[in-house]
Amino acid sequence: MRPSGSDVQDGTAAGVNEANKVETLALLHMVVGYEDGSVVLYQENSLRSAKSKRTMDVVWSVKCHRNPVLGLDLSSDMRFAISIGSDNAMVKYNLFGAHQGVPEFLQVPLKTTGIAEVKVRNDNKIVALAGWDGRIRIFSARAFKPLAVLKHHRESLYCLDTADVQEAGELYVPLTGPATTVQRDDTEDNAGQDDEPRRPANVTSEDESESESESEDDSDDEDALAERRLWSKRHWIAAGGKENRISLWEIY
């Protein structure tokens, strides 16, 4: 698949993201960042025949970076994209709000140059940047308000990712499968029945010992599952870079 005709863009593609997860998009869309600093939104050509090759048409193209685009990411609802590069600019694009071939965009200057990676969290509320200066910068996705700067690494960061945030009421599915325990209450079924001989209170049968052991194991499994659930609900950010270390952060 390639751009058609005069829509071919010169230069190396530095970042690519597909916008094909929204049901309202009948055609494949692709956002590409180039080494000349431009970002282009492509759309699959709907007029191709069944035997012809798939081609892409340019929806819009804009150049907001002075230097190469090093990374870009899309919101989970495919409404906006964010690009970063080796300059000090972070740019937010309204993917489908173009006017006469020019998209609506918001350009925000950063206090540092050289951003290697950008991630939009799946709730579309925050944006995380990994910088060459070893710092992770957190911004609000709506207005690009700076929220935090995370300092740990002494060398450049090259990669970063965020864990998915579970929405309120979202069903949790444990990674290792369900580990629930069902306990049967035989109080009503055995009411009035006393077929077994009574034993002294200080005497424990072998069956009861096994039952207590199984109960303790079940309790341990429930505690482990509860801990996994707690960890899965935390808002994690992971970053790595030149110094061969990965840092794990819990944020809001």
TrEMBL record:
Judging by the UniProt lineage, the source's domain of life is Eukaryota
Report residue spans for region: Disordered.
176-224
Key words, A-Z: Repeat, WD repeat
> Known Gene3D superfamilies for this protein?
YVTN repeat-like/Quinoprotein amine dehydrogenase
Comp. bias (Acidic residues): 205-224
Q: Which family does it belong to?
A: Belongs to the WD repeat ASA1 family.
- Output this protein's name: ASTRA-associated protein 1
Highest lineage ranks of the organism?
Answer: Eukaryota, Fungi, Fungi incertae sedis, Mucoromycota, Mortierellomycotina
List the gene name: ASA1
